[in-house]
Write a structure and sequence with these properties.
The complex is a heterotrimer of chains A (113), B (356) and C (117). Chain B is mainly α. Helix content of chain B is 69%, strand content 0%. The mean pLDDT of chain C is 87. Chains in contact: A-B, A-C, B-C.
């Protein structure tokens, strides 16, 4: 078993347009999805959602308001899961609700010994 | 986050051990694979230790990771031609481990030294690849030492690795009757490696001294292996020790070079001078008189600050002998310069004599 | 006190780095983390290997590598405690990642456990 980080990326401007009802449905989809991973005992840490606003520190201490204003997608959150292989973790990611919102999931192995 | 301190140069030290042991296992033709596995091992260490702390036994941690990576690489590579590697994969199914004993690490490095110093490989490439594989230097560091760029070094290493493959050079000790002959090239490479550090114009003093220390370490390894513990090897180590004794004295506070005659002899490292004398004595056991003996003799006299005519005459005599053994225009020039210096040193003496 | 995630973005330098450089870089990062931990403000952190990464897109399309629109790949992150985004950004300034030209550290506040991503 290996640990993987799932990074959720999406276009935030879409999310703010949701109605309260859509927002609730979205929340339920997330809880169901993470719950299903948890039920297999493969959820290490449900992780965190990141607030929309942030900063980017560049070389020479230049700080800009971020995240990455020049691109549409930014990191919305992440979770830690456990899987037999990268392929299994990737398969797991296919169920993530962020995909329904046009976002994507980055799957990264966490090095550990 | 209470953890053991990181040993300085640990990665560099372990890189050469891992590369030598794995290189021997995979075969000389796949040296780059061994280098890559070693690099990836340190990458894994970097990714893990940074956040989880340094393990109690860092070397054992690295060897375990390197072993697994090697296993994966061999398993993935169906074209594997090294019999040793195949046998090992079979054995490793039974969880048999790579031999990381001190003896095997030392033997592997010596055997690697002989392989890299194969006469078929051009000298420049030998030094470059030795710096990489036997000393654990990176391409930028080698380029810096040679005052050249990455591309040039990469090309040299590529050529050297290609030769190893083409000539099917074995990473093994040469046969007894071969050893003397092969040892000559090995010593020449080590001598050049040391000179590279000692005379290089690279501004990186630490790097230059590291180069010298690496050359000494490898020569020292040869003295610890009975079949190569020969007079000329000891003479070379003696020569290096004498030169290295002036590391501190030949650099001023600004890192600039201080010429021999202007050096503060109190800064000469007496321990290294004593070491030089020890190995010079060992070198004198036997009839062989190599150029390293003569150069060590010259270097010995340079550790004597007293400006006696005995000193300068001995030096000149040794130079003359050296020219008889191995004439080279460079050596001739050096001898000539030394002769001039001798004359300069003698001038006041001569004047003194004349006036009396 | 809020929690912030500091996300390191840099190019994969592992192929060109020497063992000595890797060790130096590791030491600097450990010292940096230690300096944050000394203030009691380090929560956790991890590196993310560059090898073997995937991105799952809309409609389940899978591509290799996390590289997408963003030039520099995430090489790792740490979570810190800070009074303000400014303090968190101040921590970020000390990151050895920033020694590499074009590398960045993204500072984002972590939303508190609402179960939604």
């Amino acid at each position: 078993m290996k640990d993987f980080l799932l990074v959720y990326r999406m276009d935030y401007s879409m999310a703010t347009k949701r109605t309260a009802e859509e927002e609730q449905a979205n929340m339920k989809r997330w809880m169901d999805w993470l719950g299903s991973i948890g039920a297999q005992n493969k959820l290490i840490d449900r992780g965190n959602r990141l607030e929309e606003k942030g900063k980017v520190v560049k070389t020479n201490n230049v700080i800009t308001n971020g995240p990455y204003s020049d691109i549409k997608e930014s990191i919305g959150g992440y979770s830690l899961v456990r899987a037999e292989s990268l392929d299994v973790a990737t398969e797991m990611a296919k169920g993530c609700p962020v995909l329904l919102a046009g976002g994507n999931v980055e799957v990264r192995e966490i090095s550990k010994m | 986050m209470n953890q053991p301190e990181l040993i300085p140069h640990l990665f560099r030290t372990e890189f050469r051990k891992i590369t030598s042991v794995l290189g021997k296992l995979l075969g000389a033709g796949r040296l780059e694979m061994a280098e890559d596995i070693a690099s990836e091992t340190f990458l894994a260490a970097m990714e893990t230790w940074t956040y989880k702390g340094i393990p109690e036994n860092p070397a054992a941690w690295l060897y375990a990771v390197a072993k697994n990576k090697a296993k994966n690489v061999i398993a993935r590579n169906s074209l594997f031609d090294s019999k040793r590697a195949k046998e090992w994969v079979r054995n490793s199914q039974n969880e048999e481990v790579i031999d990381w004993s001190e003896k095997n690490i030392a033997d592997s490095q010596l055997q690697m030294l002989f392989a890299l110093c194969h006469p078929a490989i051009p000298a420049e490439a030998q030094i470059g690849l030795s710096l990489r594989v036997l000393c654990g230097f990176g391409i930028d560091e080698i380029a810096n030492a040679f005052l050249t760029n990455r591309e040039v070094i990469n090309k040299r290493l590529f050529r050297a690795r290609e030769k190893l493959r083409e000539e099917k050079i074995e990473i093994a000790f040469p046969e007894e009757k071969e050893i003397l002959h092969r040892l000559e090239t090995v010593l020449k490479t080590l001598y050049l490696l040391f000179s590279e550090g000692y005379y290089s114009e690279s501004s990186d003093n630490v790097l230059r001294e590291d180069l010298c220390l690496e050359a000494m370490r490898l020569t020292h390894l040869l003295t610890e292996y009975e079949p190569t513990n020969l007079p000329n090897v000891n003479a070379l180590l003696s020569l290096m020790s004498f030169h290295a004794s002036r590391f501190e004295a030949r650099r001023n506070a600004n890192g600039e070079l201080v010429l021999y005659q202007d050096q503060d002899e109190r800064k000469w490292n007496q321990e290294l001078i004593a070491q030089g004398i020890y190995f010079l004595n060992k070198a004198s056991q036997g009839k062989l008189l190599s150029k390293y003996h003569l150069e060590a003799g010259i270097a010995y006299w340079h550790t004597q600050k007293a400006d006696t005519s005995e000193k300068w005459e001995s030096i000149l005599q040794l130079y003359n002998q050296l020219l008889q053994i191995e004439y080279s225009p460079w050596l001739h020039l050096t001898a000539h310069l030394r002769f001039q210096r001798l004359m300069e040193k003698k001038k006041p003496l001569l004047r003194l004599k004349n006036s009396s | 006190m809020d929690e912030f995630i500091l996300i390191f973005r840099h190019q994969d330098g592992s192929k060109v780095a020497s063992p000595e450089q890797m060790q130096t870089w590791m030491k600097q990062t450990m010292d940096w983390i230690q300096s944050i931990a000394a203030k009691g403000k380090f929560v956790s952190g991890t590196a993310l290997p560059f090898a073997d990464a995937r991105v799952v897109h809309h409609k389940g399309i899978v591509t290799n590598g996390p590289f997408g629109d963003i030039k520099e790949t995430i090489g790792g992150f740490i979570i810190v405690k800070a009074e303000s985004p400014e303090e968190a950004a101040e921590f970020a300034k000390g990151s050895p990642v920033l020694q590499g030209d074009g590398n960045t550290v993204e500072v984002r506040k972590i939303a508190k456990n609402d179960g939604v991503h």
